[in-house]
Every structure is written in structure tokens, then in C-alpha cells.
Amino acid sequence: MTMEEIFKGTKEFKQEVFNKVQLELNQFGLLIYNANVKQLVDVTGHEYFSYLGQKTQMEAANQAKVDIAEAKMKGEIGSKMREGQTTQNAAKIDAETKIISTKREGEGKKEKFKVTADAKIFENKKKADVAEANAELAMKKAWWAQSSQLAEVEVAKAVAVREAKLQTEVERMNAMHRTEKLKADLLSKASVEYDIKVSVSSMHCEICVYIYIYTHVCISNCTCFSVCVCLSLLGKYFLWVFAILSGVTWCDSITMLEKNMFQEMAKINAQAVNSLQPQISVWSGVNGGDAENGGGVMKYIAGVYTMLPPLLKTVNEQTGMLPPPWLGKFTADSICN
Questions:
Q1: Residue 232 lies in a domain
Q2: In angstroms, rounded to a whole number, what is the distance separating the alpha carbons of residues 278 and 266?
Q3: Contact present, 231 and 283 (Cβ < 8 Å)
Q4: What is the domain extent for residue 313?
Q5: What is the reported pTM?
């Protein structure tokens, strides 16, 4: 080490001495616990260390001044730098703040517009949904109204059809009832008329048989009184027919036939006429005369048979009744015996 290094670096020198001496003492097992190095001083007439001290002091003072100036400079520069950095940072921060503010404002406006647009879209969508729902509701209402009207029409038509069916059934039943009633009335009337005609025909036949028998009896006896009896019976027969046609009840006549009252009446009339012994002339409608002028009994009988066809024809035209087959029958143009 140089003298300047030793003077300037006392501590380093001391540490260097300790280290070198300790190495020598280590072989003897000795340790240095404390050691002091005496400060170097000048001898009389030699002021080397004093000059070095002054120099060191001056250098230290100058260095201190330099350090102070440098520190001042650095302080001012640092202050200015700090102020500039502060201003710059403030401006930067202001700019960034403005940028961020503008950005945030733009984003805010953007978000506002977006929210407004979304709200508008949502509102339009809701309006569209409401319109669609209203349209669907209107369609359903129209369909319901149509279904209701169709149901009412179907019910009305069903009621009308049912009413028509019931009316048809009622009319059919009424028609059947009227038909049955008419059939019953006509059938009963026809049955009654048939029974009446059968009864009348039976009575006619019986009376005609009686007339036929008494006529033949009179012819066999060949007396004028017998002819009168025959004519009397024929007259009673035709009077009885005209009485029926005039509305007189025929139950009494049937009862009289069943009791053989006509036979008894005919016998009584024949006996009465026979006891009187009258002179009777019979008009034949062709040749007039009595029994003595060329005919005898057969002429009178021929006169009676001549009178029968016009009478039977009149009865047939008025009543529709025909004479018995043994008595005669009608042809298309005339009456035959």
C-alpha cells in the first residue's frame, strides 16, 4: 500500500495488518483480540502528513461542495423532472382520463343506444307478440263464433228435422187413423148393406117362393079365386118392397117372416077372397077382356106375368136389386122371363 492509501485508508490498513500478523501468529496458536494503529504524524521539519491531511480535507471539502452542487443540481433536476413528470403524468392522466371519459361516454352512449335499441326491439317484439296473440285470439273467437253458429244451426235443423219427422209421423198416424176409421165406416156400412141386401134377398126369395107355390096351387085348382089370391100376394110383396124403399124398418118384416106370419096372412086373405066369390078382371096391357072372352085362367096368369117385367125393371133401376133367377133375369136391352 502506498502512503496515501495508508493515510486515506486507515481502517483498510489496520485490517490488512491484522490479517498479515494473524497469519504469522497462527503457527504459534495466538489470536489477536484487539489492536490499535497509531495515527501517522509528521516529524519536525517534515509536514507530509499535514499536507496530505489538508489536501484530503480540501479534496473532501471540494468534493463536498461538488457533491452538494451535484446534489442541488440533481435535486433541482429531479424536482423539475418530478414537476415535469408530474405535469406529464397529470396531462397523461388527464388525456387518458379524457380518453377514458370519452370512451366511457361513448361506451355509455353506445350502451345507452344499445339498451334503447334492445328496449325498442323488445318493445316491437312484445307488440308483435301482442298483435300475434290478438290475431290468434280473433281467429279463435271467429272459429268459436262460427262453431257456435254452426251448432245453433245444426240444433235448429235437428229440431226442425225432428219436428218434421214427428209431424210426418203424426200425419201418417192421422192418415192411418182416418184410413182405418174410413175402412171401418165403409166396411161396417158395406157389411150392414150386405147383410140388409142378403136379408132382403132372402125375404124376397121366400116371398117369391110363397108366391110361386100359391100361384101353382091356384093354377092347379083352376079357380078365379086362386088367381085373385096370387095377385093379392104379389101386391103385398111389392107394397112391402116399396115400404122398405120408403124408409120403413125391415126388422118387423124379418120377424114376421121368421114367425111365418106372411104365410098365415096369405092363407087368411085367400080364404077371405074365396068366401066372397068376386068377379075379378085382370088387365094384361095387351088384350083386354075377362075370363069368359076366350082365355080362361091361363089368360089371366099371362096378364100377371105381362105386368111383372116393367115392375121389376123399375125396382132394379131404383134399388139395384135383381129378381130371383127362377123368376127371370135382365139382358142388356130387355127383360126376359
A1: yes
A2: 17
A3: no
A4: 198-336
A5: 0.24
